[in-house]
Amino acid sequence: MRAVRFFIHLFSPQESNNHKARAIHTSSLTFLILAIFLYQIGLEILPHVGVRVLGYAANISPDEVIRLTNEKRLANGLSPVTLNPLLSQAAQAKGADMLNKDYWAHVSPDGIEPWKFFKDEGYSYHYAGENLARDFSNPASVVDAWIASKSHRDNLLSPKYKEIGIAVVEGDLSGVDTTLVIQFFGTKFEAILPPKPVSQLNVEPAILPTIKEPSFILKSSTTLAKESGPVLISPFTSTKKISLVLILSLTVIFFIDWLIVTRKGVYRVGGKPLAHIGFLGMIVAIVLIAKGGQIL
Amino acid sequence: MRKFFSDIFHYLSLFIVFILAFSSFRFFPFDRFMQVGICVATSASYIVWGIVHHAIHRDLSLSVILEYIVIGSLGLVVTFSLILRA
User: Fold this and answer.
1) ipTM over 0.90
2) Which sequence spans correspond to the domains of chain B?
3) A195 to chain B nearest CA, in Å?
């Protein structure tokens, strides 16, 4: 009986809660904000206490990424790029470097640019480009994300590139089980130049990279193979689910509160429930369309 | 409900802000900087709307302002935790 009374006190406006459901009192909402903060801090701490967290459960086939890339190029009147195994090996080396040195950037913390991986594999380029993606669940969302970003789109739809290499690398970045997609574009010297004396081939080529400042550089340098213990939680997915449940519940409570107060004709000093419902509804819509994954 | 219809233009302006915010968020699916900016601007607009609305109705008080600030902050915390986790 006491539990029922508390439940009503929590979710329905009545005298005991000053005619406003306790769950939507300013103090309760402040408590919720703190709880979300604590949850996020907890997710940050987990990898440091040995619990692996999952970036995204990915199923990305390199062939499918190439097929979708060429589909976009053909749709834009461009010739398709052909797979060059050297570029794929270079992309693989870049991915391994990112996991080993634990960074998410075009340039490694020790200053190694992507082009070094091209040269290491013996790919002598005239044009070269790189697109990066992480934590996407399927190839279509990766390519769509690149197309949605102007600089990546320019790379993907550049008529200068003739060849492509893709690597999908899975491992641990800062305690998060992550899937990296490395897309290398290139055009060899010999593909665009008439035969010239060897000495002229060493001229520095024009490069069209998608280079930006690293958004962040991760600290830990462990890889998946070195880690032990089960993968416990996906930060993005769990945050999304919890946010949805939380905000939807609040929206329903505000709506019930508004209905009861309006029917009873209670006058109270406070914000407008309909405005709150509209705002929370918009937050729910934003949470629903929020997409996981990052591109660089 | 009668009060709602008398304030229809107030609510309409708020609705337009929400539609614009949602559309902009959708338009920049992987641009964190823009998404954060959209969320901050929308929450700020919502708080300002609440203050102006209650000031017009002459029932503005500290508790009302706090209520809008807390709900606006809740929206910000939820969207930030998602955007920065993506």
Assistant:
1) yes
2) 2-83
3) 43
Structure tokens at A94: 């870049």
Handedness of CA A203, A208, A213, A215 (dihedral sign): negative
The single-letter DSSP state of residue B60 is: -
Chain B hits for A55, Cβ within 8 Å: none
- Please state the pTM of the whole predicted model: 0.71
Q: At what angle do helices B62-83 and B32-56 cross, to 10 degrees?
A: 170
Cα(B72)–Cα(A237) distance, integer angstroms: 23
Chains A–B, number of C-beta pairs less than 8 Å apart: 118
pLDDT digits (tens, 9 = 90+) for A122-170: 888 888 899 999 888 788 888 988 888 888 899 899 999 999 999 999 8
Q: Within an 8 Å CB–CB cutoff, is residue B36 touching chain A?
A: no
Q: Which residues contact A162 (CB under 8 A, 6 or more apart)?
A: A79, A81, A82, A186, A187, A188, A191
Q: Which are the contacts of A120, defined by CB distance < 8 A and separation ≥ 6?
A: A90, A93
Is B24 an 8 Å CB contact of chain A? no
